[in-house]
Amino acid sequence: MIHVVAIVTAKPGKRAEILANFKANAPAVHAEKGCIEYGATIDTDGGPFAKFGPDTLVVIEKWASMDDLKAHGASPHMKAYGEKNKDLVANRAVHVLQNA
User: Residue 90 and residue 37: Cα distance in Å, rounded?
Assistant: First the structure.
């Protein structure tokens, strides 16, 4: 199984717009071959835990195989999603992991 943790930092005040675009695109991703999990997360309120901050979202993904993840990245709906967000994102770090 392939795990993806994508840390996306929006330009100030643009996180809500990225999240709206994410939610609109998510059904197409969930329908892809090999998609096990695909969801956006943000910091919880309260507690002494480390925070990413108000402009950051973290996408948690699980894929059946690396080939499925590669196909996901090349899909037309992901290209359109990237185009919608290109002027909203300040920074993005994508970590691709496998079970140890």
Answer: 25
Under DSSP, is residue 4 helix (H, G, I), strand (E, B) or coil?
strand
CA distance 71 to 61: 14
Q: DSSP E strands: which ranges in 14-53? A: 35-41
Distance in angstroms (rounded) separating the CA atoms of residues 100 and 87? 36
Joined tokens for residue 33: 């071959």
Query: Token pair of 46, please?
Result: 């309260």
- Do the Cβ atoms of 71 and 14 come closer than 8 Å? no
Note whether 58 and 40 are within 8 A (CB): yes
pTM above 0.85, yes or no: yes
Segment 15-56, tens digit of pLDDT: 999 999 999 999 999 999 999 999 999 999 888 899 999 999
- Residue 39 pairs with which residues in a beta bridge? 60
